[in-house]
Amino acid sequence: TQNGWNSYNIPLADFVAGGLSTRAHLAQMIFSAAPAGGATAYVDNVYFYNVPNAPSLSNFSIPTQVMGTASFTITAPTSNSTGAFTYSSSNTSVATIAGNTITITGIGTSVITANQAAAGAYSAGMITTTLTVTPAAAPTPIVAAANVISLFSNAYTNVPTDTWRTSWSQATLADVQIAGNDTKLYTNLNFVGVEFTGANTINATSMQYYHVDVFTPNATIFRVKLVDFGADGVFSNGGDDREAELVVSPLTQNGWNSYNIPLADFVAGGLSTRAHLAQMIFSAAPAGGATAYVDNVYFSNASVLPISLFNFIAIKNKNITTLNWATLTEANNKGFAIEKSTDGVNFSTIDFVNGVGNSNSKNNYATIDKAPKIGLNYYRLKQIDVDGRFTYSSIATVKFEKTDLTNFSFFPNPAKEILKINVGVIENENATIKLMNTLGQTVISKTINKSGSTSVISFDISTMASGIYYLEFKNGSNSSVEKVVIN
Asked: 3-state class of 183 per DSSP?
């Protein structure tokens, strides 16, 4: 084309086809044009090249995660290229990514894509894996079996039921296991009927509470209806049927909701008898679009549980562990002993947090572990009643590498009068911080014992000459050195 650049990438095979059977000793290149002797041509970017090879990418997978897991670092795929990786998540309602760190936001699946930039002889490449996030197992009931009529729970012997999904239900049922715990999963839930009729009818006259655990990623309303078929055991026959439906609350998404509902609440709603209970109906909004995991469905005559634990999460926060938990209800709750272990078997108390005592609303709690150990750190809550009885939570874990616990930071940089240093966790009896000049001579030095862990110290540099210095932090056999500019 005239009056425009023409770029030609010509396969050398085309020259071979034209008679250039070898190109081991190329010595001449001839340009020609028409009209002969009158053509004008600008020529640039003359070269031979190979097309970059696509990198070979493999070993990219992310294990199934449990909702509530702390943010974690992606393990990069194996590649024969040195190009940098960037990551993305196809479903941010399940997981978000910042740099190479994944944060779990909900249950479900998300395609995680690793894009590798071109480098050297290799072009850009891409590999994907699917991340699956499941709920944690429902809380384990602590009511004594002698005080329970259980319809569904691994903690008890269950009474017979006809079905957990009647033919007239508008929902899909799957029997799933979460961490080895049997759970009912309802999807596309509008309403679902559970029946225990005839010889399976339940006499809950002596029971005081109805219990159910519900986990939902998207429901905004969840309801429970109990139906008594009367002495004749037949629905809509003889006018002796009684029923009541309750909206359970509070309903929190992406966490287990434990409800211990006084049966008196159902009585107030119209369930005047419970000697021949034969039906239970779950319903939810949005109708037909809700998902709900259901576990631990039972009647009991025990008093209200000491607490209804909503969640317990351990999060690695730089060189400390942040522990967060929440309760939905509390009864005679003295407080929580926070216990820690390095082997998952032998635990010791590292803190105690007072409970609110009695509450029917959500309460949030937090504490920190200033001295985590290298490797896995195991944490659990020991909930203690005012009468001294206690129960344990599930175990949460956080893993620390050596580099996590030797990290330190400082500011400002460049510095002028004061240099502030954030000290990490000190594992040994003492750690040292040195400010050295370019000759390796120590200008300022300070020794810090364990009590100085996670503290901030200051160096007065107001009289020091401007230039480049080095700040060294030694913690046992681990050390880090960073450059400091002093103006």
From this structure: strand
